[in-house]
Write a structure and sequence with these properties.
This protein has helices at about 5-10, 50-60, 75-85, 100-105, 140-145, 150-155, 175-180, 190-200, 225-235, 265-275, 290-295, 310-315, 355-365, 365-375, 385-390, 395-400, 415-430, 435-450, and strands spanning about 20-30, 35-45, 65-70, 95, 115-125, 125-135, 155, 160, 170, 170-175, 205, 210, 240-245, 245, 300-305, 320-325, 340, 345, 405. By secondary structure, the chain is α+β, with helices and mostly antiparallel strands. The strands form seven sheets. It has a four-stranded mixed beta sheet with strand order 3-2-4-18, with helices on one face. The protein has a three-stranded antiparallel beta sheet with strand order 1-6-5. Strands 9-17-19 form a three-stranded mixed beta sheet, with helices on one face.
C-alpha cells in the first residue's frame, strides 16, 4: 500500500467483526418503530450467493435488516474502499487481509464488549420484538472457539479488531497423471521426498531449457505466493521470524548453539537451489510462465497453493487429474508447522448501522451462521468445532488437517513491502549478486522499515 493510501486511511475510520457468545433480551419494542436497514458488505473472492442461506437465517431473527453483498476484484478493492470512505458513502462491512491489520488500524474500531439491537422472537403464532444484547468474545473466548492463529492475528496488544469466516492454509497440489508418468508413486510428505520427486519430474531439452518443471520453486516474480513458501520454510527450519516487534529471521535463535547454523539463511539457500542450474534439483527459472499457469498447462507436476486456488486451477484446466496433499515438512515426526493466509470481516466506523453490522458478523462467524457459507464456498473453517466435519471432504481435508498447526508471522504496517523484501532476497541469491547471508540481512532491514 502506498504512502498516499496510508495517509488517506488515517483520516477515514473503520471497524471489525465479532463472534457472539450469548445474548439476552431486555424490554420490548413496537413493530411500528422498526425502520428497514440495509447493511452493505464489500469483500473479495467469495460469491454473494455463498452468503444467501446465512442471510436468510439471520433475517429470521432480524427481519428488518437486509444484507447486500458486493464482490470486488482484488486489484480494485483497496482503492474502491478508500475512495468510498473518503466520499462518505463507504460500505458498512469490509474484508481485511490479516497482514493488512496495522495498515488499517487507524480506520478500524476496537471491538466492544456487546451490542444491543431489536430482535424478533417467535413463540408459536406470536412474534415479539425485544431489545437483545449480544456479548462479544474476549481474547480467551477466541482461543477457545478458533484455531490458534486467529487470537494473535485479530488483535493489536489487548484490543481485538475482527474475526474470520475461514482460515486457509498453504498446501501442495499435484497432477496425478504427471506423477504417474514420472514414476512418483505418492505425493511427498517431506522436503527430501519433494526433492526426489522433482528430479524424476523435471525434463530439459538438449540445450538445457526446462520443458517440464517438477515444482515452481526457487523463483520470485513468477511464483504465486513465493514469500509465503519461503517464510514457512524458515519457520519449519527453526527460524525466529520476529522478536520484540522486529523482524529477526536473519539471526541465530538462542536454542541453536552452532554459529554455522542460521536457519533463515539456510532456508533461503534451500529455496533458491531449485532455480540454480548447478544444483541437481534445478527445475525453475525466470523464463518459466507464472506458476499456477504452468501447473494448469501441465508444465509442472506440483504447485504450492491455497484452497482458493482449486477452482481457479479447474477453470484453467477442466480435465486435470488434480490432487492435493498437506504441505511438506522437514520430517514426518516431531513438530509440524504450517502457514495460514486469511481475511477478517470488519465494520466501517462511519456506518450508521454499527450494531446491525456487528450482529451480522457475530452470526456469520458462529457455527450456525458459517456452516452454509463454508459449504457453498468450499473454504476451510476457522472454528475448531468444524474441523472434523471437513476432514471427510477429499479436497478440503489437507487444508483442514493443517489448521491446528498453522501460523502466521508478519504483523507490520506494509505487507506489500515485506513481500517485496523477500522476493528481492530470492532474486539476489538466484542471480548470484549477493550471498545468502547478505541477501537475508537486507531483507530483514527492509522488512523492519515497515514496523
Amino acid at each position: 500500500m502506498t504512502k498516499i493510501k496510508i495517509l488517506i486511511f488515517a483520516s477515514v475510520l473503520l471497524v471489525l467483526p465479532i463472534l457472539g457468545l450469548g445474548c439476552k433480551g431486555s424490554g420490548t419494542v413496537s413493530k411500528d418503530s422498526l425502520q428497514p436497514v440495509t447493511v452493505n458488505y464489500w469483500q473479495v473472492f467469495n460469491e454473494p450467493s455463498d452468503f444467501t442461506d446465512a442471510i436468510t437465517a439471520f433475517r429470521q431473527t432480524y427481519p428488518h435488516i437486509n444484507i447486500k453483498v458486493r464482490k470486488l476484484r482484488l486489484e480494485e478493492y483497496e482503492d474502491a474502499i478508500i475512495r468510498a470512505l473518503a466520499e462518505g458513502n463507504g460500505p458498512d462491512i469490509i474484508s481485511v487481509q490479516t497482514t493488512w491489520l496495522k495498515q488499517y488500524q487507524n480506520i478500524l474500531s476496537v471491538m466492544p464488549q456487546s451490542v444491543t439491537l431489536p430482535a424478533t422472537v417467535v413463540d408459536g403464532n406470536k412474534s415479539t420484538i425485544v431489545l437483545q444484547t449480544i456479548k462479544l468474545p474476549s481474547s480467551q473466548d477466541l482461543r477457545t472457539a478458533f484455531v490458534d492463529a486467529v487470537a494473535t492475528d485479530v488483535a493489536i496488544g489487548t484490543q481485538i479488531y475482527g474475526l474470520p469466516l475461514s482460515v486457509d492454509t498453504l498446501a501442495l497440489y499435484y497432477n496425478r497423471q504427471l506423477l504417474n508418468q514420472a514414476g512418483v508413486a505418492s505425493p511427498p510428505r517431506t522436503w527430501e521426498e519433494l526433492k526426489n520427486a522433482v528430479k524424476l519430474l523435471t525434463t530439459q531439452d538438449k540445450n538445457g531449457n526446462i520443458i517440464q518443471a517438477g515444482v515452481p520453486l526457487g523463483g520470485s516474480r513468477n511464483i504465486n505466493r513465493a514469500p509465503d513458501i519461503l517464510a514457512v520454510l524458515m519457520m519449519q527450519n527453526g527460524t525466529e521470524m520476529t522478536k520484540n516487534n522486529k523482524a529477526t529471521f536473519n539471526q541465530i535463535p538462542a536454542t541453536i548453539q552452532d554459529p554455522a547454523i542460521v536457519p533463515g539463511r539456510d532456508a533461503l539457500r534451500f529455496y533458491a537451489d531449485f532455480a540454480s542450474p548447478a544444483k541437481e534439483v534445478y527445475t525453475w527459472n525466470e523464463n518459466q510462465p507464472e506458476s499456477m499457469d504452468a501447473f494448469a498447462n501441465q508444465q509442472a507436476g506440483f504447485f504450492f497453493g491455497y484452497s482458493y486456488h482449486a477452482p481457479l486451477i479447474r477453470s484453467l484446466a477442466p480435465g486435470i487429474d488434480l490432487g492435493v496433499t498437506k504441505l511438506p515438512q522437514i520430517a514426518t515426526t516431531g513438530k509440524q508447522i504450517n502457514f495460514a493466509n486469511y481475511w477478517l470481516e470488519g465494520v466501517t466506523k462511519q456506518t450508521a448501522y454499527k450494531n446491525e453490522a456487528w450482529a451480522f458478523i457475530q452470526f456469520m462467524t458462529s457455527e450456525r451462521g458459517v456452516a452454509s457459507f463454508l459449504q457453498h464456498s468450499e473454504k476451510p473453517t476457522a472454528l475448531r468445532a468444524l474441523i472434523a466435519s471437513q476432514r471427510g471432504n477429499d479436497m478440503l481435508a489437507p487444508f483442514a488437517d493443517q489448521l491446528l498447526t498453522a501460523q502466521t508471522w508478519y504483523h507490520g504496517r506494509n505487507a506489500a513491502a515485506m513481500e517485496e523484501a523477500l522476493r528481492t532476497a530470492i532474486e539476489q541469491v538466484v542471480s548470484g549478486s549477493k550471498e545468502p547471508d547478505a541477501a537475508i540481512d537486507g531483507a530483514v532491514q527492509n522488512t523492519n522499515l515497515t514496523y
